[in-house]
Amino acid sequence: MEFIIGVGSAIVAKLAEYTVVLARRLCHYTSDVDNLRAQVQRLNDARQNLQVRVDEASGKGEDIHDEVQNWLTSAPGISQGAEDFLNNNRDRANISCCSVQIPNLVSRKKLSREARKMVENLQREIQAAQRFDAVASRPALQTVIAMRRDYEDFGSRKTILEDIMKALKDPNVSRIGIYGIGGIGKTTLAKEVARQAVEAKLFTEVAMTTVSRTPDFSGMQREIAEKIRVNFEGRETIPARADLLQRKLKEEKSILIILDDIWEKLDLIEVGIHVENEGCKMLMTSRDRRVLGVMGTNQNVLVDNLRDNEAINLFKKIVGDIVEKSDFMRLAIDVVRECRCLPLAITTVAYALKSQDELSVWKDALMQLQNSAPTKIDKTLQNFYPSLRLSYEFLRSDEEKSLLLLCSLYGEDRNIRVEDLMMCSVGLDLFPDVHTLAHVRIRVESLIVRLKACCLLLDGDRGGDWVKMHDVIRDVALSIASEEGGMHSVVIKKKEDCRSLKMKKLKDSKVLSLLPHSDFYQLPERLECSKLELFLLLSDQGICIPIPNHLLDESKDRLKSLFFEQANLLSVPPSFHSLQNLQTLRLRGCVLEDVNFIGDLKHLQILDLSESTIKQLPRKVGQLNRLQLLNLEGCKDLKLIEPNVISSLIKLEELYISEYFDKWEVGEVNVSRRSNVNLAEIENLEKLTSLSLRVPDAKTFPKDFKFSEKLERYRISIGDSPYYSHPSGISRSLLLKLRERSQLTALGLESLMRRSEWLLLDGLIDVKNVVCDLDSEGFCDLKRLDLLSSDGVQYIVDCVDQQIHPHKAFPVLESLRLMRLRNLERICHGKLPQDSFKNLREVRVSRCDKLKNVFPLSIFKRLHSIQVNNCKMMEEIVGHVRSEDDGAVQFLELRSLDLGNLPKMVKFMSLSEAEAAGGSSSVESSDPFFGEKVI
Question: Which residues in 169-205 are b (16+ Cβ under 10 Å) and which e?
Answer without folding.
Answer: eeeeebbbbbbbbbbbbbbbbbbbbbbbbbeeebbbb
